[in-house]
Amino acid sequence: MEESLYDFTVKDIYGEDFEFSDLKGKKIMIVNTASKCGLTPQYKGLENLYSKYKNDNFIIIGFPANNFLWQEPGSNEKIATFCEENYGVSFPMMSKISVRGSSMHPIYKFLTDKSKNGVISSSVSWNFQKYLINEDGTIHKVISPRTKPEDQKIIDWITSS
User: Fold this and answer.
1) What is the pLDDT of residues 30-52, one digit of tens each?
2) Quick check: is 37 catalytic?
3) Residues 30, 31, 37, 124: which is the catalytic one?
């Protein structure tokens, strides 16, 4: 049975409940992040994108994950401090989760399994893979970790009506 992204409640990086149902009608980019990855400077691009388009019905949700070469070893507190001090991250960051394997978080089970999301099956190949979610909660596209957040195809999607 297909689920909806809006069925999920997760913990934010401060341990508070974060309800995806509050995001109905917004375009959402979900991205798994890490502090010690070659792609970590993408935080800057993500923050720039969020700053520019957050008032245009767009939000970025970051999920720190330690699935790739132990590149996110820190606690939630350390991750929050790192993001704020190094990149001025102001988009919502969630508590650290697993995005693959037997301990995969339910929201990533939804994102990666067509039988759950109704659109596409995928696997998270590295840190900073991006899931673009349409205003109705359906997956629009899965974007490669190496594609920068400010890539034109992402901007075109954000600005399309």
Assistant:
1) 999 999 999 999 999 999 999 99
2) yes
3) 37
